[in-house]
Amino acid sequence: xxxxxxxxxxxxxxxxxxxxxxxxxxxxxxxxxxxxxxxxxxxxxxxxxxxxxxxxxxxxxxxxxxxxxxxxxxxxxxxxxxxxxxxxxxxxxxxxxxxxxxxxxxxxxxxxxxxxxxxxxxxxxxxxxxxxxxxxxxxxxxxxxxxxxxxxxxxxxxxxxxxxxxxxxxxxxxxxxxxxxxxxxxxxxxxxxxxxxxxxxxxxxxxxxxxxxxxxxxxxxxxxxxxxxxxxxxxxxxxxxxxxxxxxxxxxxxxxxxxxxxxxxxxxxxxxx
Length: 273
Description:
The chain is α+β, with helices and mostly antiparallel strands. Helix content is 33%, strand content 11%. It contains 9 helices and 6 strands; from the N terminus they run H-E-E-H-H-H-E-H-H-E-H-E-H-H-E. The strands form 2 sheets. The chain has a 4-stranded antiparallel β-sheet, with helices on both faces. A two-stranded antiparallel sheet has the order 1-2. Helix 4 (103-113) crosses helix 7 (196-210), helix 5 packs across helix 6 and helix 5 (133-152) packs across helix 8. The protein is elongated, with a radius of gyration of 23 Å.
């Protein structure tokens, strides 16, 4: 069975799929009919470009999908101005309402995020959604206990200078780890995959950027991620499959405050050649 299937009755032989294939695996066959030779199909990454760019929809879907075609109505372009405004008003949210995000909403976000690019379309990212706020608090507690152990030992750690302030904040009723967020999204992947970290960061960036469209806010959970890389108790609590590890984590929920303005940033540093 070939990796892709091209409907000869629908195909106009325009050659778009041949040009668009990133690895050059689709070739011109008899009567200019495009095809993928059996000997190269193992190299196909199933990126879907041939399917997406085929004007006749002659290439059958690589995966089961709810989006086999794009209607003209669905092609409404987002203006540069509206997209820029949306992206610029993105904020790292560290104050949350005491309100649960329903699982359907989270699944809708991840349904978007699964289209994030990944190296060779490997799609290595798995998701652990810590939905129970009590469980999120437990992860924060374990992280703080790990920080205490670092302070009580002779271990040299780059975080050591700031750990006393984080521990003191926690002891005073604050949550410097997950900021009181009701939920945490953890991107994890096979430890042996050299691209997993980068692909996970891309996926989480999509998650953070999509969140405001659903009325949510998010923030990178760096302290939780660092602890999950070293603390065995935290690893055990997360219970990831064997051979997998946390790539990064993100807290999220309904923001307590509304964004009213867009703060400034340093000018772009561009070198032209």
